[in-house]
Description:
The chain is an alpha/beta fold. The protein contains eleven helices and nine strands.
Amino acid sequence: xxxxxxxxVPSELRSLWRTRPVRTPDDAKIAGVCGGFGRRYGVDxxxxxxxxxxxxxxxxxxxxxYALLWLLLRSxxxxxxxxxxxxxxxxASGSKVTAVALVxxxxxxAPTFGGSGASFFVGAGFLMAMLAGWYGLHRxxxxxxxxxxxxxxxxxxxxxxxxxxxxxxxxxxxxxxxxPYGPPVPPSWDPLGAAPFAWDLPDPGVAPAPGPAPxxxxxxxxxxxxxxxxxxxxxxxxxxxxxxxTWLDSTxxxxxxxxxxxxxxxxxxxxxxxxxxxxxxxxxxxxVLLASxxxxxxxxxxxxxxxxxxxxxxxxxxxxxxxxxxxxxxDMRELELDRDRSYSIxxxxxxxxxxxxxxxxxxxxxxxxxxxxxxxDSARVDPSDPVLSLYVYNGIGSITVTR
Length: 403
């Protein structure tokens, strides 16, 4: 008999949250979020810190996600996270003022982590890429590593961080005054309990337990690859700003860094090393993908938001409209042509409206990738009149040309 198993995404997500990292104050730069992820998934915490910094700089998603994880992940030893403690579901170390401040940061950064326009999609792409990276790390390491139970165990209030005489190591059962399993039990070599001062000695003839295995030497592939990527980015930025290579924009520079990281992943796949590069490759790939989807028209973007133009002189037709996101309204109802003229309007997303004079001869061409088009047929009022050649393009949205 054979059985076929399929990936149960809801079950995996429940398992991801059940075995989620805990913040580690003993390995913290800010709140121990990156240290907890590093211990839970066996990845150098420095890589997570780099990913959060990059996501914070490119769109601001790193600030939102770090504050949210700080609020939702409990600290090692605590019975609840700061968010749970704030609503009365358990106790957490630290002040409630910090939890309230984190809630404010999450609320303020949630709708603004990407700003507007293309930067919004960049921030959203980083956020989705980091969440997808977390899901990928869980699929690679669904079972917590050895020693994780001790790190994530809930400790009594007297042993938690910040309490008087607190310690991060848990006591053995029966070793304290509030031992959960009753009084200490004498060892087999002293059944009468005559020498309690020597109970910590091993039984006669029992070999001592072997010491811990030597730590495996960490691979330098990840650090070397990230170093080469940073050098490549620095050289590309220098060539763009100082060398006059304006074609090296942010998208191409990120693609160069992604190519270096991809090379490191290929080497790591052959040598079974460099798994930490996945944390950096995900946000980089998301940024490059989203940035490549936003087509920049020739001449560059003129901005975002609603834009209204009133054209009354023929010379104004020499300047085309290149807009990014928002509605565009061009009013030509007071225009009188002196000769044959052409005019183009390009918008990336939003509504485009063109108002034409009643008695003008027009040769119009309208095209929208996604959206409705209401464009009059080309018509010549008088064969001797000059003709306006109108070209209107819209990526996402409607086009309306009326007289």
